[in-house]
Amino acid sequence: MSKVNKEPLLHITKRKELPMKQTWMIRIGAIIAALIVCAIVTMLLTGLDPFSVFGTMIYGALGTERKAIILFKELAMLLSVALALTPAFKMKFWNLGGEGQILMGAWATALCMIYMGDKIPGFLLIIICLVAAIICGAIWAMIPAFFKAKWNTNETLFTLMMNYVAIQLVAYFIILWEVPKGSGKVGIINQTTQAGWLPYIGTNSYILVIIFVAIITAGMYIYLKYSKHGYEISVVGESQRTASYVGIKVDKVIIRTLLLSGAICGFTGWMMVSGVDHTITTTLAGGRGFLGIMVSWLAQFNVIAMVFASLLIVFLGQGAGEISTNFGLNESFADIITGIILFFIIGCEFFINYKVHVRKKSGKEEA
Amino acid sequence: MKKKVLAIVLALVMVFGLSVTLTGCGSDGGDGYKVGFICLHDENSTYDKNFLDAANAACEELGVQAVIKTNIPEGQECYDAAAELVDAGCGIVFANSFGHEDFMIQAAKDFPEVQFCHSTGTKAHTEGLDNYHNAFASIYEGRYLAGVAAGMKLNEMIEAGDITADEAKMGYVGAFTYAEVVSGYTSFYLGAKSVCESVTMDVSFTGSWYDEALEKEAANKLINGGCVLISQHADSMGAPTACENAGVPNVSYNGSTVDACPNTFIVSSRIDWAPYYVYAITAAQNGEAIDADWTGTLETGSVVLTDVNEAVAAEGTVAKLEEVKAALQDGSVQVFDTAAFTVEGKTLSSYMADVDTDAAYEKDTEVIEDGAFKESKFRSAPYFDLQIDGINLLDTAF
Predict the structure, then answer these.
(1) If chain A, 367 residues long, is cut into consecutive pieces of 10 residues, what is the mean pLDDT of each piece?
(2) Judging by DSSP bridges, how do beta strands B365-366 and B352-353 pair with one another?
(3) Chain B window 74-103: which residues touch A at a Cβ cutoff of 8 Å?
(4) Domain range for residue A201?
(5) How far apart are CA B322 and CA B300, in angstroms?
(6) What is the CATH number of domain B139-271+303-336+384-393?
(7) How many C-beta neighbours within 10 Å does residue B1 have?
(8) Are the beta carbons of B66 and B59 closer than 8 angstroms?
């Protein structure tokens, strides 16, 4: 009676590349499925009308002009980090140090603003801050890159640990700069003179920040797609041996790419201090160094797709806050909704890359 | 195939479309007066819960609508939140965390028609804005009372022979090393010393207002270092939980933690923000001026003690607290009476405090008058930052 050839209920095979249309259908299907699951979870857990919860999320992200500008500002910040990390990732160099590289840029900016605020005229100070931030961010990324290139150290651990060094360094300087003594808060730097602040358009510099990131986005697109450097990065990412064989200096490419990666992270830190927050805290980067990794992967290192991936994540984040304000729900509930949506979106990539076969009914077993 | 795509796109459009139409009614709750609140954390923090409870109580009492934003960090997010609350039609906006201050000032400058109130801040009296205000309470009086309860517990332990008089050492978990915390632990210590002369105290700082793991670790460190009673000025359940686990009595803060710690909770002092909220909201509604610096007291009902947990507290604590409270109110007892403490072995007769906040920490105001350090007189937020004898600071990196 025992069956010899027992076929498993499910088995999985790698798909050939699907046509564009079909991959997008799977993705859209995943989003719809996610919304349905969110709706059910919302009703079961809170008894609220799921449509009004979704509606509130949309309102929270885009409901007023100010909310929309804040959304795009947040998008710009996250996208900037994702763009910074992407060239390294494309090269299969796992730069997990975005958080630290941003902080070092922010730290350099704050340092210049505090010590040169009353000595150097406004525009020049902004430029000095910018250069200092880019250099500091780049150095922070170059250290692990150098060790990787020379001695093949593990960059994942190295870049990750550099984050903590940066956090402690900033913590130390916060104690030097805090007002009042012992409070652990630096407060707004140069609040009365606004020295070193990016100029306002309206009541803030958000639009300027958005424009900067738009420029970086275009630049990164061209760099990765059309430049010789971009091509070298791809080759090194595919196989370091191949790269060496065709005459690419792998060490040089690694260090050069990480300098760029760190420089853009430093630039992001500069935008945060000089353009947005005007203060420094150890949590200033706000996890963007890690969220940026998700954006970059979600978009499969495609610069244009990254804009949408950032939009999705920022949209969920901004919308989530409104849910807790409007319905008196804890922020954790918004996290649940965000988690479900991200789970489906990331999960659907599995179905794009693999095909699941279900065992056919036993009667009709075929060879 | 095309049909399928079309169907999916249509379905998506409908889902989003429906959501947007529903938004219109969803976010428009009532047409009463709106009051905005910005909180650093949410109700999981004892500090924020205390604010949220007061906000809801005050708004209910006045029949106005509270619009609450929780988990707002001390950065530009605070400004953005304040601006959004103004957009939503709030006539007055409150923020609750020290680091929110500069961003609230920024918002006050940009929206002169709206009132901005900031609890625990220090800059309103020098900033000179008509629509920016600070508030605090004379919580040092509450902490002093809580300290009396702690001292009585120590006396009970000494009498029972559990510890000797020399071993009467308390532990205190503080967040940072600035006046708000220093004033708090010093008044707590002086309260205990007023009934238990031999008491000493170790203070450990966490460098964070809310870090459950660090606070727990700090409390455990103090307990292992021989502290027989713990109190705290940090906002998580870390220290009370550590005390409950170790069976060490705890004087809490921000509200009762008796539910989580029935075997160790003695009493808790807290600021009741509702009287201030009622005062400020009413003034804003009527277009009247709000004090630049408002200090709540025992009289205004801003400084309160929770119920004493008689299962843990020493006998007679309730009666003694009533007695001391009356003495504080009629002025016969002053918390920072210069006769009650010494600094490096000396009694103080003069002290310049940094009342006007500046980057150079300039000491600008004489604060000792009539034989006492006058806390919360020259501005609402505390400025007592002396290191008095009997208190031992363990880690002052912050």
Answers:
(1) 66 82 87 91 88 90 94 97 96 94 98 93 94 98 94 94 97 93 91 92 90 97 96 93 93 95 98 96 94 92 94 90 84 84 88 82 51
(2) antiparallel
(3) 74-76, 80, 83-84, 87, 98-99, 101-103
(4) 79-301
(5) 17
(6) 3.40.50.2300
(7) 9
(8) yes
